Amino acid sequence: MRRDVTVSLDVRSDGPAELVLAIGVADPLAGHERFEATQDGDALDVHTMEDSHGGRLHVLNVQRGAVHIDYSARVEGQAPPPDIDAMQEIRYLRPSRYCESDILRPIAVAEFSGLTGHELLAAVSSWVGTHIAYVTGSSLPTDGAVRTLLSRRGVCRDFAHLVVAFLRALDVPARVVAVYAPGLSPMDFHAVAEAAIDGAWYVVDPTALAPRQSLLRIATGRDAADIAFLTARGDLPVRIAELKVLAITDALPRDDSLSPVVLS
Fold first, then answer.
1. Residue 133 phi/psi, 5° resolution?
2. If we measure between CA atoms, which residue out of 70, 63, 65, 66 comes closest to residue 18?
3. Reported pTM
4. I need a surface site. Which of 20, 24, 141, 145 has the fewest CB within 10 A?
């Protein structure tokens, strides 16, 4: 499978700032990748860092004014499955800011008691997909799994948070992943959950908005706080003026929603 992704991002900074972007694919494989940033027609220096959860960050310093960022990558084939170590199992079992698994444990036990393995993943995915309505603009960036459950609506980030919270409440390590999603409409960055079962990470996406087999990992973390595509450090605001995301594949697979899928 070949996947091509592009991002065009325009931001405006009201003063000097450090921008940290998580838009690069986690593993570019063959290395067909380009990241360019300009301000007032001049190229900006870009520093690449490895993220502690996996994936890569692009860091650049900007001055007051408009900044344009172009990113593109072509990925052919599948990345090797990510390993699971003891520290990951501990990290991704703990409650986090947006995945309040400690609060949701009684509900998780009541709904999914007795289920294990891939049967549990399928049940949680089906429950969230059935009980939560996908409504664009219905949630705040600060909403967590508890608020999503109470409001019964949200977007992909909220669906992923609730899945992760339920699974952690049942002692299954789980995490949130930002991905490129060929087949997604309208096109944007997408968020899914990932769960550790039988020594491997399996993707769970109750939104069913794009085939899981086509997804391409960008960033991984405990919740949305770890996978934000743009963060800024400075005394004055940085605003997004325009964002365009495109992800395509040479062969869009069919997803039956029940088969176990390992994320690239």
1. -90, 135
2. 63
3. 0.94
4. 141
| Within a domain: 261 | no
pLDDT at residue 166, as a whole number: 98
Domains of the chain: total:
2
Give me the mean pLDDT over the 185-195 stretch: 97
Q: What is the pLDDT at residue 30? A: 54
CA distance 125 to 160: 9
> Would you mind telling me the total number of residues written for the chain in this entry?
264
Same domain, 142 and 95: yes
Q: What is the pLDDT of residue 184?
A: 96
Tokens of 1: 């499978």
